[in-house]
Each structure stands twice: as structure tokens, then as C-alpha cells.
């Protein structure tokens, strides 16, 4: 009898031990992991994005790129007031066109941009903190030769004399387009030099401006490479009303514009320009 009792007790002990192991009477409390505190930099930059109102603009027409908080500002405009502990610097970058480092004092929250040749241009914004990129945003702007001569519409001419400007941080040039009113209005494009822009040789200017014109207007109708200078001179004098001291190098004829790459002064060329007049 005693043996039977001991056997039943052992079986019961084993049974209840297994039951307790699988189904404990008091559940173990597992504490949730401590979340890492979100930094001020992360909070301030996580919804940052970039915006431009018009992603297709004409050559030499100014576009505007700005920063905004995409969660709080549906109008795509935010004025950021940041201290040094939030970000160290912000890089505004477009290959060959723009590379600007904005510190927080003063802090840049928008930039203007223009292009002198058609194409698709990718803009990148890089936000730095402690030598690391903590935010990146980008957009693509398409530049087109949508008006007859760069940024001039002869039927509705510009009100300002300076039509547009474009810069290249890598090549070191600034290129301006100017509109001249008068009995015979005209517009011209030339390279502009200052303290930070080294003067180029006339041949370099001619080479660059020819590339700019070809990108927008295609192959010229006449050029000194394929035609005699006398032929170009005669064509230029027939098309252009303003008799300026220019030597034509190439001529394009568009729907409402006569366009020429010229050297000036014609007897001892010092610089080159692209010039245009409305067709009469």
C-alpha cells in the first residue's frame, strides 16, 4: 500500500511540475525597450523637402527652389529659424551650375536658378550635422528653348533690360542676356567677367557661345566653317537693322528671330556675343 502511495505521489509531483513550467501562475513582466530619444536635428529635418513652382522653365528664365516642411506647410513654403546645434550646413547643388554651402547664420531657405542651355537638371539638397549627411532631398528641373530667342518674346518684350543670368561654379563663368529697346530692338548674350571670373580668350568665348546657340537653335544656316565671309556679311546686313560693328561668324533664322554669333569689334575682335533681332 505504501509503495502504491509513493508511486501516485511521484506521478502527481511530475505532472504538477510540468504544468507549472508550461503555464506559470504569475506571468513574467517584460519591460519594453527604452526608445532612443529623437534628436533635435532629426525632429527638425525629418519632414524637410524642396519645391519649385514650375519644373519646366525657359532658358534664362529664373526659377525658385525653396525648403519647406511637407507635413505642416502645404503651400510649400517654410521659414526655418535654426541654431547651430540643429545643423552645421546645407549644400545646394546642381552639376556644373550651382554649389553653395549655407551655414545657419545667415541661413538660406530659398535660391534662384537659371540655365543657359536646354536640358534636365537635377538639384540636390544635403543637410550636414557633425560631418554627416542627416537629410537629402532632390528635384529635377527641365530647361527648354520655349521662346523664340532665349527668354525674349518680341511681341511681348521684357520690361527690364537684363533678361536673365546664368552661372557655372565649375567653369567659372557668368552669362548675361540683355534686351535693348529702341526703334529696332535687339537682344544679346555675352560672358561677363568679374573678380572671381577669369577672363577667357576670344576663341574660348566663341567656342562656348557656339555650343550655347547650337543647343537651343540647332545647326546654323550659315557659318564661316562652311561659307565665305562675304556671304555671311551680306546675309547679316540684310537680316539685321542695327548696323553695329560686328563680324558675323554664324547665322540662324528662326520663326520670328534672326540670330547671329558675332565677333566685336569686327576689325580686331576682342570678344564674342550671340545677338538677335525680330524678323521684319
How many structural domains in the coordinates? 2
Strand count, sense and barrel status of the largest sheet are: 7 strands, antiparallel
Mean pLDDT: 83
User: Which strand order do you get reading across the main beta sheet?
Assistant: 9-10-11-15-14-13-12
Helix content, binned percent: 10-25%
Unreliable stretches covering 5 or more consecutive residues = 2-8, 10-27
Beta percentage is: 35-45%
Measured between the Cα atoms of the first and last residue, the distance is: 130 Å
Report the structural category: alpha+beta
The coarse overall form would be elongated
- Which value, in Å, is the CA radius of gyration? 34 Å
Q: Spell out the helices and strands N to C.
A: HHEEEEEEEEEEEHEHEEE
Strand segment count: 15
What is the subunit arrangement here? single chain
The helix count comes to: 4
Notable features of this structure?
280 residues; alpha+beta; Immunoglobulin-like; 2 domains; 7-stranded antiparallel beta sheet; 4 helices; disordered N terminus
Structure, briefly:
With 280 residues, this protein is α+β, with helices and mostly antiparallel strands. The chain folds into two domains: 105 residues, Immunoglobulin-like (Sandwich), CATH 2.60.40; 117 residues, no CATH class.
Structure explained in plain terms:
The chain is an alpha+beta fold. The chain folds into 2 domains: 40-144, Immunoglobulin-like (Sandwich), CATH 2.60.40; 162-278, no CATH class. The chain has 4 helices and 15 strands. The strands form 3 sheets. It has a 7-stranded antiparallel sheet, with helices on both faces. A 5-stranded mixed sheet has the order 2-8-7-4-5. Strands 1-3-6 form a 3-stranded antiparallel sheet, with no helix packed on it. A hairpin with a 2-residue loop joins β7 (119-129) and β8 (132-144). It is elongated, with a radius of gyration of 34 Å. Mean pLDDT is 83; it is low at 2-8 and 10-27.
Amino acid at each position: 500500500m505504501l509503495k502504491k502511495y509513493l508511486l501516485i505521489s511521484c506521478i502527481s509531483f511530475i505532472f504538477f511540475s510540468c504544468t507549472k513550467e508550461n503555464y506559470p501562475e504569475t506571468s513574467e513582466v517584460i519591460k519594453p525597450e527604452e526608445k532612443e530619444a529623437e534628436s533635435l536635428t532629426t525632429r527638425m529635418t525629418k519632414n524637410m523637402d524642396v519645391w519649385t513652382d514650375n519644373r519646366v522653365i525657359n532658358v534664362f528664365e529664373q526659377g525658385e527652389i525653396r525648403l519647406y516642411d511637407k507635413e505642416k506647410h502645404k503651400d510649400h513654403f517654410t521659414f526655418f529659424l535654426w541654431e547651430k546645434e540643429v545643423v552645421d550646413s546645407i549644400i545646394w547643388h546642381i552639376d556644373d551650375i550651382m554649389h553653395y554651402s549655407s551655414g545657419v547664420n545667415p541661413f538660406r531657405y530659398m535660391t534662384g536658378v537659371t540655365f543657359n542651355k536646354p536640358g534636365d537638371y537635377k538639384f540636390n539638397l544635403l543637410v550636414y550635422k557633425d560631418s554627416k549627411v542627416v537629410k537629402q532631398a532632390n528635384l529635377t528641373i527641365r530647361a527648354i528653348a520655349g521662346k523664340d530667342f532665349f527668354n525674349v518674346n518680341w511681341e511681348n518684350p521684357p520690361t527690364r533690360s537684363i533678361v536673365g543670368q546664368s552661372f557655372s561654379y565649375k567653369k567659372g563663368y557668368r552669362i548675361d542676356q540683355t534686351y535693348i529697346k529702341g526703334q529696332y530692338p535687339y537682344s544679346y548674350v555675352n560672358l561677363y567677367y568679374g573678380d572671381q571670373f577669369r577672363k577667357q580668350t576670344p576663341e574660348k568665348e566663341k567656342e562656348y557661345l557656339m555650343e550655347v546657340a547650337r543647343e537651343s537653335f540647332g545647326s546654323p544656316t550659315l557659318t564661316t566653317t562652311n561659307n565665305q565671309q562675304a556671304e555671311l556679311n551680306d546675309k547679316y546686313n540684310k537680316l539685321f537693322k542695327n548696323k553695329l560693328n560686328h563680324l558675323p561668324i554664324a547665322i540662324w533664322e528662326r520663326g520670328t528671330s534672326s540670330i547671329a554669333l558675332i565677333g566685336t569689334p569686327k576689325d580686331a575682335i576682342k570678344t564674342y556675343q550671340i545677338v538677335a533681332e525680330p524678323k521684319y
